[in-house]
Design goal:
Chain C: Keywords: Cell inner membrane, Cell membrane, Membrane, Transmembrane, Transmembrane helix, Transport. The complex is a heterotrimer of chains A (221), B (311) and C (457). By secondary structure, chain A is mainly alpha-helical. Chain A is 61% helix and 8% strand. Chain A has one domain. Chain B has twelve helices and nine strands. Classes of the chains: A mainly alpha (221), B alpha/beta (311), C mainly alpha (457). The structure holds sodium ion (2 copies). The site of one sodium ion has 6 residues of chain C, from loops.
Chain lengths: 221, 311, 457
C-alpha cells in the first residue's frame, strides 16, 4: 500500500496532515468555547482560513510531484506514445510558464507587505522597482501578534508596534509555495523529457483509493 | 464599456445597486460621471462584492487594481486608529451630529490622515445609526447579558459587546440570517436599512431603537492615482462626487425611516427606549471609550462631544 | 470575442493534458496581460483571496476529512449490511440495497467518486457473486453514486454557496427531497427491471438482523444527525458542523468501530479500551490517524487548487464585465425562464465533459446567476439544478468522473461502463427535467424551515 517514501516526502506529508488536523482542532475548539462556555475564540476563523490557504498552496507542489493534480487524460490515452510525449512537453512548458508568472506575481504581492521593493517589468522581472509604497503596517483582522515575531517591528515596521499579526506573515506562503511549485514543475519537465512519464495529471480525485481496491481484489481473486 | 482614451474609474463595492444607500449613491455617481465626463472618464461599478470584498478592496486599491471604494469606516482602523472614533458607542447623538463632525476640521483632517499610507479619503457617505436586535426583548443592557452577538471584526465592537455582557461572534455574512434564526447567535447590531434589507427582523424577537453607533462609509482613492489626473478632470470628478454626496446623505435619514416603517408594516417589533433606559445603555457602554481614547485622540473625542452639546 | 479566445485556450490546454488548475490560471494570466492593465501581483492576490475571502469553502476540507475517517473506519461495510437487511429480500434486492447504501453513504460524504469507491468496491463484487451481470452492477452503482453531491453534505453545494453567496445550510436542506426522490426513482426502476428480467432476490433475515445491523451502522449514520441537526438545531454554522463531523468520525473510527488506530485488529483481535487506556491519547498521534489526515489533506489540495484558480478566471470575467454582457444578450434575445434553464442545462452538460464539477460551478454560477435573479428564478433552485447537471456530467462520456471510478472499481473497460450506465442515465434525465421545472422540490424544505430566500443581488 505504501509507496517508496523519501525523507522529503515524509516532511511534506506530515506538514499536510498537521495543517488539516490543526484546522479541525481550532474550529472544534471554537464550537466548544461557544456552546460549552458561552465564550469564543475570535481569531479562530481567521487563523483557520490562513492554515487552509497554506495547506492548499504548499500542497500544490507536493501534488505536482505525485502527479495528482486533476486533469483530462482522455486524449493522451488515445494518441500514439510519440504524440503523447510531444503533448506532455507542451503541457509541462505551459505549467512552467504559469509558475514563473506566479513566482513574480506572488513575490510582488508579498514584497510591499515586507517593506521590500517589488520587481519591475510587466511579464517577467526586469529588476526591482526603485519607488514603491511600503505596506508593512498592514495587519490582519483578528489574529493577535505573537511575541516571537516582535523582531519584525524594528525590522520592517520602523519601530511601530503591531497589535495584530502583520499581513507579511500569512502572505509569506505565496512566494514560498510558488517557488516550490516552479521547482516541482522543473522536475516534472525533466521526467517528461527523459521519457519517464508522459503526463502530469490524474483523471480523478480517488486514483489512489482505486489502486488500493484493485490491489485488495487482486489478492482475493 | 469604456471608450478608447477615457480614464477608467473602477468602483468596487459590496451592496446591491438599487436598494442600499451606498449602492444607490454609487449608481448615481456612475451615471453622472458617465454623462458629464463622457470622453474624458468612464466609471465601471462592480457591486455585490463581485470584484473585491471590503477587506480586500483597500489592498487592491494600493496595488492600483481599483480606483474607488467605499468600505465602512471601521475598515480604516488598519491605516490610522483615529477611525475607531466612529465605532465608539454613543459617541454621536444622532446622524446630524455625525454629519457635523465629519464636516468639522477634525472630520476633514481624517480624510487626509492616510496619505502617507497611500489612501486619500474623498467623502463620507451615510448609512445611518445602529440599532440592536436579539431573540429576546432588549430593554435594559442587562437583557443582553450572556447573549451571543454577531459582530464585524473590530476591537471596539468586540469591547462594546463585552461591556454589555454579550459574547461577540464572527461568521460569514451569508450565514447570519440562518444563524440568527436557528439561534447559533442570539443577536446583532445594524442600521434600519440593513436590518430590513437582510430581513433580520423576521428572525429576532424585536429591534431596539438604541441609536448607539453609526455605520458610515468613506469613499477613498489611491493618492498616486488621484495625483496622476489632469487638474480639470480631477476637479470635475471631485465636484460631481461632492454633489452626489450631498444629495444622497440628505436622503439617508429618509431611507432609514422608510426601512423602519417597512419593518413595522411587515409585522416586526420595534422597541423604543425612554430617557432613563437609554441612560442605562450609555452608562454600560461608555467605559469602552477609556480603552480606546489614546488611539482615537482626546481632541477628536472632545470635538465630537462639543458638537453633540451644540445640537 | 476575446472571451471566446479565453475559453478556447482553457479547453485547448485541458485537452493536451495541462492540469485543470494550471489551464484556468494560465489562461486567465495571459488574458489579463494582453487585454487589461492588471498586474501579476493582482493574480497572486486573487489566489490567496480564494481562501481569505471565502470562509464558507472551509467546510470542504472538514467534510472530506469526516468522510475519510468514516471510510477508513469501515462504515461502508456496516451500511451495506444494514441495507441488505432492509431491502435485500425484494426482487433485485441486492441492487436496490446498493442504491440504498449509496444514499446513506451520500449523507456522510460530500463527494460522488468517494461514494462509488466506498460502496461500489464492496457491492459490485457482492452482486456478481449472487448472479447479477457485472454490467448491471456497475450501471447501478455508477448512477447511485452521483447522489453523493445531491444528498447533503455536498462539496459542490458548498462551492455554489461560496460562489454566489447564498447560505450553505439552505442549499443542504434543498438537496434532501431531490436526493431522496432520485434514489427512490432508481430503486423503483430496478424493481421494475427485476420483475421483468427475474433478477435474483435475497433472503429475508428477519427484524433481528435489521435491528442489529442498524445499531452497528447507526454509529456512523448518526453523523447525519450531527450535520443537519447541528445546523438546523442552532448549534453550529455549516463549517463548524463539518469540523464537528470530522472529530466525531475520528472518534467512532478509533474507539467504536476500532478499524483504525491503537485499538484496531492487528491479528490478535480488537483491543479493549479498558486494557489500553493510553489509546485515548495515542489515537490522536497514531500512524493511521496521520495517514487519514494526510489523504484528506491531499484531496483537499487537489480540489481546492482547481477552485482557487477557477476563482482567478471568475475574477477576470467579472473585471471584463462578461456576466453583464451575457445577461444583456440573453435578456434582449427575449429568453424566458424555461429557455434560460435549457441553456444553463446545455452549458453545464457540455462543460461537465471537461471539468471537475466544483471548478466548473465556480465559473458558470457567476455567469448565469444575475440572469436567473432577473428572471425571478430562486437562487437555491438554480443551485440544485446545477448540482443535478453535475451528476449527469459525471456519468456521461467522454469525460465522467464516476465512469472512471466505476471502471476502476469494477475492473471494466470505460465503454462497457458507459453502456451499463445508460438505462439509468435515462432515469436521471427524467429527474433533471422534474427538478428543473418543479421548483417546489428544491425550495419547499428551505422555505419551510428558513423562510423564503432573501434576494438582494
Ligand atoms: Na453527500
Ligand atoms: Na461527462
Amino acid at each position: 500500500m505504501q509507496h517508496q517514501h523519501s525523507f522529503v516526502d515524509r516532511i511534506e506529508e506530515t506538514l499536510i496532515a498537521i495543517l488539516i488536523g490543526l484546522m479541525t482542532v481550532v474550529t472544534f475548539a471554537n464550537v466548544i468555547a461557544r456552546f460549552g462556555f458561552n465564550s469564543n475564540i475570535l481569531w479562530a476563523l481567521e487563523l483557520t482560513v490562513f492554515m487552509f490557504g497554506w495547506l492548499v498552496l504548499l500542497g500544490a507542489s507536493y501534488a505536482v510531484k505525485k502527479h495528482s493534480h486533476l486533469g483530462v487524460d482522455a486524449i493522451i490515452n488515445m494518441v500514439s506514445p510519440a504524440t503523447a510525449r510531444i503533448m506532455g512537453i507542451i503541457a509541462v512548458g505551459c505549467c512552467l510558464l504559469f509558475s514563473v508568472f506566479m513566482v513574480k506575481g506572488a513575490y510582488d504581492y508579498w514584497a510591499v507587505f515586507a517593506d521590500l521593493p517589488p520587481t519591475s517589468g510587466r511579464w517577467f522581472p526586469t529588476g526591482f522597482a526603485d519607488k514603491f509604497r511600503s505596506q508593512s503596517f498592514y495587519e490582519v483582522q483578528d489574529v493577535p501578534m505573537v511575541g516571537f515575531l516582535r523582531f519584525l517591528e524594528d525590522l520592517i515596521n520602523y519601530g511601530d508596534e503591531y497589535e495584530k499579526l502583520p499581513k507579511v506573515v500569512p502572505y509569506l506562503v505565496l512566494p514560498v509555495s510558488m517557488i516550490l511549485l516552479l521547482y516541482r514543475f522543473i522536475q516534472a519537465a525533466m521526467q517528461i523529457v527523459r521519457g519517464e512519464t508522459d503526463r502530469l495529471v490524474a483523471s480523478h480525485e480517488v486514483e489512489d483509493e482505486i489502486e488500493e481496491v484493485r490491489a485488495q481484489q487482486g489478492e482475493h481473486d | 464599456a469604456c471608450d478608447e482614451g477615457e480614464i477608467v474609474i473602477k468602483f468596487s463595492h459590496v451592496t446591491n445597486t438599487d436598494k442600499h444607500p451606498k449602492g444607490i449613491a454609487a449608481s448615481l455617481l456612475e451615471q453622472r460621471v458617465n454623462d458629464e465626463m463622457n470622453g474624458k472618464a468612464c466609471m465601471e461599478v462592480f457591486p455585490n462584492s463581485t470584484l473585491y470584498n471590503d477587506n480586500k478592496v483597500l489592498e487592491a486599491m494600493l496595488q492600483g487594481d481599483v480606483q474607488l471604494a467605499a468600505p465602512s469606516l471601521s475598515k480604516f482602523e488598519k491605516f490610522t486608529k483615529q477611525f475607531r472614533i466612529f465605532d465608539l458607542p454613543f459617541m454621536f447623538k444622532d446622524v446630524n451630529a455625525v454629519d457635523a463632525f465629519q464636516a468639522s476640521d477634525a472630520g476633514q483632517g481624517l480624510l487626509d490622515s492616510m496619505q502617507r499610507r497611500g489612501l486619500q479619503g474623498l467623502a463620507y457617505w451615510h448609512n445611518g445609526m445602529k440599532q440592536m436586535s436579539a431573540n429576546v426583548p432588549l430593554e435594559s443592557p442587562s437583557d443582553a447579558n450572556g447573549l451571543k452577538f454577531r459582530v464585524q471584526s473590530s476591537d471596539v465592537l468586540v469591547a462594546q459587546m463585552e461591556a454589555i455582557g454579550g459574547s461577540p461572534q464572527k461568521m460569514a455574512f451569508s450565514e447570519v440570517y440562518g444563524a440568527l434564526q436557528q439561534g447559533v447567535v442570539d443577536g446583532q447590531e445594524n442600521t434600519w436599512s440593513n436590518i430590513y434589507g437582510k430581513k433580520f427582523f423576521e428572525v429576532q424577537d424585536g429591534v431596539t431603537e438604541t441609536n448607539h453607533g453609526i455605520i458610515d462609509y468613506l469613499v477613498v482613492t489611491n493618492v498616486d492615482w488621484l495625483e496622476s489626473l489632469d487638474a480639470d478632470v480631477r476637479d470635475q470628478f471631485l465636484t460631481i462626487l461632492g454633489e452626489v454626496t450631498t444629495t444622497r446623505n440628505a436622503e439617508s435619514t429618509a431611507v432609514n425611516n422608510a426601512a423602519k416603517q417597512s419593518i413595522i408594516d411587515a409585522g416586526g417589533t420595534i422597541r423604543s427606549l425612554n430617557a432613563e433606559q437609554r441612560q442605562e445603555w450609555v452608562d454600560t457602554m461608555r467605559p469602552v471609550w477609556d480603552k480606546f481614547s489614546k488611539d482615537v485622540g482626546q481632541e477628536n473625542i472632545d470635538a465630537a462631544q462639543a458638537i453633540n452639546a451644540s445640537m | 470575442m476575446e472571451v471566446i479566445l479565453l475559453f478556447s485556450m482553457v479547453i485547448g490546454l485541458l485537452l493536451i493534458g495541462v492540469p485543470i488548475a494550471v489551464s484556468l490560471g494560465l489562461s486567465s494570466i495571459l488574458f489579463l496581460l494582453f487585454f487589461s492593465d492588471a498586474t501579476l501581483a493582482s493574480v497572486a492576490g486573487t489566489l490567496f483571496e480564494a481562501f481569505e475571502g471565502h470562509f464558507t469553502l472551509l467546510a470542504i476540507p472538514f467534510f472530506i476529512l469526516a468522510s475519510s475517517f468514516m471510510t477508513t473506519g469501515g462504515v461502508a461495510r456496516r451500511i451495506i449490511r444494514f441495507s441488505i437487511a432492509c431491502v435485500g429480500h425484494l426482487p433485485g434486492g441486492l441492487a436496490i440495497a446498493g442504491v440504498f447504501a449509496c444514499m446513506m453513504f451520500a449523507a456522510l460524504s460530500g463527494s460522488s467518486p468517494a461514494t462509488v469507491v466506498a460502496i461500489g468496491s464492496i457491492v459490485i463484487a457482492g452482486m456478481r457473486q449472487v448472479g447479477y451481470t457485472k454490467e448491471f452492477a456497475a450501471g447501478v452503482i455508477c448512477n447511485a453514486g452521483t447522489l453523493g453531491i445531491l444528498i447533503p453534505p455536498s462539496i459542490v453545494m458548498v462551492v455554489y454557496a461560496a460562489a454566489v453567496e447564498v447560505s450553505v445550510g439552505r442549499m443542504f436542506l434543498a438537496g434532501v427531497i431531490p436526493g431522496l426522490l432520485a434514489g427512490f426513482m432508481l430503486m423503483v426502476t430496478i424493481y421494475g427491471m427485476a420483475k421483468v428480467k427475474n433478477l435474483p432476490k435475497g433472503d429475508w433475515k428477519g427484524w433481528g438482523e435489521i435491528a442489529e445491523s442498524g445499531m452497528e451502522a447507526g454509529w456512523g449514520l448518526f453523523l447525519i444527525v450531527i450535520i443537519l441537526g447541528g445546523i438546523y438545531g442552532g448549534i453550529f454554522t455549516p463549517t463548524e458542523a463539518a469540523a464537528v463531523a470530522a472529530v466525531y468520525a475520528f472518534l467512532i473510527a478509533s474507539f467504536i468501530y476500532k478499524d483504525m488506530g491503537p485499538l484496531a485488529d492487528r491479528g490478535n483481535g480488537k483491543g479493549k479500551l479498558l486494557r489500553k487506556p493510553q489509546a485515548l491519547v495515542t489515537a490522536f498521534f497514531h500512524e493511521d490517524t496521520k495517514h487519514t489526515l494526510f489523504e484528506a489533506g491531499k484531496l483537499t489540495v487537489t480540489l481546492l487548487f482547481v477552485i482557487a484558480n477557477a476563482l482567478i478566471l471568475k475574477h477576470v470575467l467579472t473585471e471584463q464585465q462578461v456576466p453583464q454582457h451575457i445577461a444583456g444578450a440573453m435578456l434582449s434575445a427575449g429568453f424566458g425562464p424555461i429557455m434560460f434553464l435549457i441553456v444553463v442545462n446545455v452549458i453545464l452538460l457540455i462543460g461537465g465533459q471537461f471539468m471537475e464539477p466544483s471548478g466548473l460551478l465556480v465559473i458558470v454560477a457567476p455567469l448565469v446567476f444575475p440572469i436567473a435573479i432577473q428572471l425571478g428564478i430562486d437562487p437555491i433552485h438554480l443551485g440544485i439544478i446545477m448540482v443535478v447537471n453535475m451528476e449527469i456530467g459525471m456519468i456521461t462520456p467522454p469525460v465522467g468522473l464516476n465512469l472512471f471510478v466505476t471502471s476502476g472499481v469494477a475492473g471494466m473497460p470505460m465503454m462497457s461502463v458507459v453502456r451499463a450506465a445508460l438505462p439509468f442515465l435515462a432515469v436521471l434525465f427524467v429527474f433533471l427535467i422534474m427538478v428543473t421545472y418543479i421548483p417546489w422540490l428544491s425550495t419547499f424544505l428551505p422555505n419551510t424551515f428558513m423562510g423564503p430566500e432573501i434576494i438582494t443581488h
